[in-house]
Batch of 3 targets.
Target 1
Amino acid sequence: MNVGNEDSIYREIEDKLNASDFIVRNNINRDDIGKRFKIDDILLNKYLGLPIFLVVVLGMLSLSFFCGQNCSRVIELCISYMLGYAGSIYWLANIIGNSFFSCFIMSIESILECSSLIFFLHFFLLLLEESGYISRGVFLIDKIMKKIGLNGGSFIPLITNFGCNVPGILATRTLKNKTVKMITILISPMISCPAKLPVYVMLSGLFLTGFKQSFFILSIYVTGIIIAFMFSKLLSKFFMKSNNNLFIIDIPSYCIPNIKNIFIISFSKTKHFIKTVGPFIIIFSMLILFLQEYPKGGKNNIDKKQNIEKIDTVNENINVETQNNNKNVDEYTNNEKYKNKYIYRIAKYIEPIFEPLGFNWKMDIALICGIFAKESIPSILKTMYTNDNNCSDIRSNLKLPVIISFIFFILFYCPCINTILAIFNEIGLFFTIFITLFYTLFSYCFSFFVYKIFSFFYF
């Protein structure tokens, strides 16, 4: 039993009680205290307090995402306008048309868009914190969070993950308990961010529609949350001592927030994110583009005559309708685009690893690119299977157990580069490598289990 730690906690409680007693005895700000208690009769009500807090937090997150998304659109329009204007200048046209320059610009755009979301999340969170309300919300949610081995302070970072894992992980800086912070960061990627939603929608739409599709997508989110809470409970039993999760909440007086200070602090935190994470995003973007574009020579530069002969051979060997012939030609052309590329070689090399899950090399390429941005997976799959982005080609080539297995693999597998860098920024290299490997292994085992179950019942 850590007696020293417990003694320090009780001393802190005693100091706060003495300070409160001093205020009451000396009649200091008695009117303010009375007003605070009247407001708290509602905001800390046994039955109304928690629903009000959840509504306020959801409103804060919705407002943050709304402002962040609109700011991202403005950034996107500004960059598009500047590129359009620069493209009209003769000597700049070739530079702008270069794929690596375009990748660099897209990386800058991605950093700024992510930064705008981080800025507004910090801004509105600090607004609630300085008003004195956030501490009351943490007090209300603390009892529930302790049932899964965390405390009330973990609630804001966890719910922020529904908007983006990066600010959710950065929000764990408010947690004083290192073990709680570590567990919160570990389970954060299990909560689906909006970048994964396009994958769920596109793939589930291959075999479900309407209410059934919505219910299936909701079940994916719920599965991630349940497993995250199970891991949290399990880890807390192994790594957290019984007295190590004592959580003291200082309930301050209500006050009007200082907007100027909040703006400066939010801007400072956003600037720190850009400086620490931004360069790595650009480097990894360039690396992925290099793998997709090179080598330029070799088998990829086949003469037009050879291409025509191969396409004719494909058409002659397939005795089907003309429409199906054209579709096979398109598929062959798409395959040729990736042949001899480094990313294709990597995908073919790891294909036997993912074969037990039912994945093919095209899905492997989507997974590799998805490490940088999960939202890019649908477009990559469509590009790999067809020229006209027709989802029916994916449906005809992939069976239901494979699609479901792939969806759950996306839910749990390696976090995106931005999230990995945010984790590295918070807890260091060793735990970042551990979390990356852990999620990759866990997603593999979970998807394998799902694939075998659905294969058994699928006829």
Target 2
Amino acid sequence: MKSNDRVLVVEDNLRISRAIEAAGEEFLFTCDFATDGWDAIEKIETSDYAAIIIDTDMARHSGYGFLNYLREEIGEDLDHVIVMTSHDREEVRRKFSGRLNVIGQDDAVAELTRVLRVG
């Protein structure tokens, strides 16, 4: 991981966003935030990100909609994308018929740090 890697956090829960941001300060990555899928699409069209972390459950344009957009734009290589869910992780993977990195919200910071170190 390079110092000051940029991460896009697509999450509408302020508590979770702040926890990820605090970890960013410790592990030297910078967070940009989107509160829904539409906001996330605008951000990735103007910036490059070392990783993207997406909550599946958001009110306006869900994480699922944003994932569909990413697959159309990037293809199946979503190794730098982390999907957070409070639902059945295997069900989320099946829904997208890929090898998505699906985690619970409590694992977000650790997994994001791991992805940035590998990438």
Target 3
Amino acid sequence: MARRRRTAVREKQRPSARELGWSRVLLLVASIAIVGLAGGFAISACAGNVSTTTSTAAQTTQPPTTSITAAQTTTLSSSAPTTTTSTSVPITMTSTTAASGTGNVQLIAQTLKLAGQGKVAGIPFAANTSGIDEVQAAWGPPSSQTSAGAGMYATYPAKYADFGFNKGDQVFDVRCYSPQLQAITYSQVRKVLGDPGIVRHTSSQTILLYATGVDFQLLWIFPTPGSSQPDPHLDHISVFYPRGTVNLMAQNLPNPSILVKQAPGTGGSLFTFAILNQPGGYALSELEWVPSSGQPVVNTLPQVSTHGTSGGTPPCFRVSADGKIWSFAYTLAMKSHPGVVKLIYQNTNGAAIIGQSDPITLK
């Protein structure tokens, strides 16, 4: 009798075939859910998250607001390191597109667009609007902090980011060397963005500079192409804010200025000018027409040199062969609008001296 009772208990505890079937179904559902979650994890770029998308088509890119038509070769002898909003900016790429040329095209175009706002995808701090104290409050102390280039640099290797900041603790340089960016090649940048405004060279690196509006410069830093690596991969990018490097307290040179020679409208849709007080030890990098309203015009010095005295499509800056007479050619639609000419001079460290004209009305 006791043996029968123990057997009955054991049979009662053993699950039925139907119960086993439901258990297998539930286990399969749970496994699918786990796989789905794993597949949905985003790729990290610098310090932020990367949102996923099912589309692998290349995003069409509007050309930069500034004409990129020429390049300048400059040798840098400095030892500068070559390595706004409170939320990070995501990179819209999947692991599939990230490993393809299509993904790199998207990332290059997005990087240029964000650089016009002083931002880098995945980094929640912007050049010109963020302070290094804000960075440290969010990310903690940097792994190292050194004086280099145009200011101090704080490094955050775990975030794939470095920050240059001035004596007022304002961030003027945001650098990123994330693995996603380092998948980009030299030829891809030039194919997507066209010729850079300026090309600079160090002993081991080639730097492609694209002016992104009146405030920022986007630098792509590569190992110098050569026979061993004809199409090198990116080392890092730099979103640079020249105005943040101006040290008015230490500057003992007068700001550059312009003297109008031929007034607007007196010789067609242009005006000519001379540049006064050109600072020694600094080279002219950009000329800008900044209207009171409407789209600014930004030309790098190599572009202006290529335009010569009569080339380029207006609106654009031009310069005489001897470099003494400069001009700004504009379109009929720009007439009656006032604006100023801004001059950006930079030394080999990137530090800037900036000059500006009095208001000029186009006629």
